[in-house]
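FORM 7B: Structural annotation worksheet

SECTION A. Query
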Amino acid sequence: MSEAKPRPDVQVLFDPATIATRNHELAQEIVAARPEKLLVIAVLKGSFVFAADLIRALHDVGLAPEVEFLTLSSYRDARASSGQVAVLRDVETDVRGRDVLLIDDILESGRTLAFAKDLLAARGARRVLVCVLLEKSNKRAVQITADFVGFACPDYFVVGYGMDVAHAFRQLPFIGYIPEATAD
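SECTION B. Predicted structure
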């Protein structure tokens, strides 16, 4: 019988109440942008918890967007981006003439979001707005700015609230980090 590995000490960065409050504030900011024919596209997998909570917050402020999912990858099973973005699962909805809210968990290098934003614009979206839960502004490798940002993030490798490390910790109700695994 193999021994269970000890669980790393995950430190809380943003607790569930703080996240919920910020999601409702983001919904107010998004509604103030007056989106038309809004299509929300969540970038999977890391944004799925954030996207679900934000969509419910958008409902609370009177928006009823259509929802789609886009699976992109620049990581595969690594912790560092390869720099090459691949579409693993595309959206099924025609984006032409629509306002698109692209939701992702974290804006770091910007490669994935810039790729997705350019892809949707090339397909005829009227406007592509970017909403991220976390932003690491010191890690930008390409020119992209998020229209809506949940939190500025220190240079930690974050987990929880849908984000993982090697498929672990997505289920945590908070955003945390593992001190010995912080980003270099």
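SECTION C. Observations
Helices lie at 16-32, 48-60, 111-122. The domain at 16-154 is CATH 3.40.50.2020 (Rossmann fold).

SECTION D. Sign-off
Analyst initials: ____
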